[in-house]
Write a structure and sequence with these properties.
This protein has about 425 residues and is α+β, with helices and mostly antiparallel strands. Helix content is about 25%, strand content about 15%. A 6-stranded antiparallel beta sheet has the order 1-2-3-4-6-5. The chain has a 3-stranded antiparallel beta sheet with strand order 7-9-12. Strands 8-13 form a two-stranded antiparallel ribbon. It is globular, with a radius of gyration of 23 Å.
Length: about 425
């Protein structure tokens, strides 16, 4: 074994470059997430080698309970090219997410194994490896993935006007729908958090990973040195303009995913992508993902949120009654059978289906599918509206499935640009 190890890639020496220092009293990156607790996050340092195999090269991103790193995979022959992986280091467990990281790994393994021959299998992010880091009394489950280029919300900024053209979006949507069909029909999994952050474009040229790692090693981004010895790094995740017009997508982030072959209730989804049955707590199934997908198409095609009036990034606080009012403006009043299923319905509606709060902001009559779409025209616009109206429906059981949506003619229609 020692002789074989000598033939593998060796760790780079620690960088001799001096990184600029950030103010200690300013919160950055993961420190700005809700309920951040430094004791739960693994104090990763660039250059360290984990599992005697993965050397941290740059930071790619972070979440409320993890940090993501680009790492060199040293388990390669010295004469082979560098291989890079994305390493998700989960925070140690606490009472509300005791087994969340393990649950994510279990679902990812399930998704990886169900049916690799399905068309949608390749559009789902799958783990390459997993291991646990022990640090003091804490344990950090770490997942290893193929590195990806960028989420759709960044990808759209590569195009004129920061919106994805209709012809490109149709190709991306076909991939997304194949992926959702695989999740729903083959794996019986509901993603529960579908949004532009969680659909990513694959790396088209691995050399950009090497360039990013070298750049961080030779010209490190500013860092924050904490009094307890931790270092908070800035994420280096902009790989520049892609050389290809349309990339391959992967659906990511399954830490909130659930099995769909059993009843599910409770709060899921980011607020502006939240389905009405979830707001009312009437239980949800696969069609909740379909609602989210339909709503997020405005982000990509129009560069704005469909329900921007309740977007927490635009207003001080998410307002559920206002959200329901805007859904009513689009779809008409909610069906009685939906209201009867919701355990929270009486917070918003009277027994006759009217809003309880008379002061609720009523959307103007101009809030329609037609009036919210500016970047499509003529037949392309009409067919798109027909497409999204099959997804954005009050009753979950009336929404089209991913498999059915793949048959819609808008996805394959070609139009001359105006």
């Amino acid at each position: 074994m020692p002789q074989l190890w000598a033939l593998k890639h060796r760790p780079w020496p620690l960088s001799a470059a001096v990184a600029p220092k950030l103010p200690v009293n300013e919160a950055i990156e993961e420190e700005r997430t809700p309920y951040y607790d430094p004791a739960r996050f693994y104090p990763a340092h660039l250059g360290e080698v984990l599992k005697d195999r993965y050397q941290l090269a740059t930071k790619l991103g972070y979440g409320s309970s993890s940090t993501i790193w680009l790492a060199r995979d040293l388990d390669q022959w010295r004469w082979s090219r560098e291989k890079y992986v994305a390493l998700k280091i989960n925070a140690s467990a606490h009472h509300s997410r005791e087994n969340a990281a393990q649950a994510e790994l279990d679902i990812l393994r399930h998704i990886s194994e169900v049916n690799p021959r399905h068309k949608g299998w390749g559009f789902i992010r799958r783990p390459l490896d997993s291991f646990t880091i022990e640090h003091g009394l804490s344990k950090h489950l770490s997942l290893v993935f193929e590195p990806l280029r960028e989420p759709l919300w960044i990808y759209r900024e590569r195009f004129i006007g920061d919106v994805i053209p209709s012809d490109v979006l149709k190709i991306l949507l076909q991939m997304i729908l194949h992926g959702l069909d695989y999740l729903h029909s083959e794996c019986q999994v509901i993603h529960t958090d579908l949004k532009p952050d969680n659909i990513m474009i694959k790396v088209e040229d691995p050399s950009i990973l090497e360039a990013s790692a070298r750049d961080e090693h030779e010209h490190p981004l500013p860092q924050k040195e904490c009094s307890d010895g931790r270092t908070i790094y800035l994420s280096r995740n902009n790989f520049g303009i892609s050389q290809k017009t349309t990339g391959i997508i992967q659906i990511t982030d399954f830490d909130l995913a659930v099995r769909g072959d059993m009843p599910n209730k409770g709060c899921i989804q980011a607020e502006i992508y939240r389905a009405p049955e979830v707001i009312l707590d009437g239980g949800y199934s696969y069609s909740a993902d379909i609602w989210s997908l339909g709503v997020m198409l405005w982000d990509l095609l129009e560069g704005k949120k469909l329900f921007k009036e309740v977007d927490p990034l635009q207003v001080q606080e998410y307002d559920e009654p206002t959200h329901l009012a805007y859904i009513s403006a689009l779809l008409g009043p909610p069906p009685k059978e939906l209201l009867e299923k919701g355990t929270r319905t009486d917070l918003f509606y009277k027994s006759n289906g009217e809003f309880k709060n008379p002061s609720i902001i009523t959307p103007s009559s101009t809030f329609t599918f037609k009036n919210t779409i500016c970047n499509l025209h003529h037949d392309d616009k009409q067919m798109f509206i027909d497409f999204v109206q099959r997804m954005i429906k009050w009753l979950p059981e009336e929404r089209s499935t991913a498999k059915e949506l793949l048959q819609h003619p808008w996805l394959y229609a070609e139009f001359d640009e105006d």
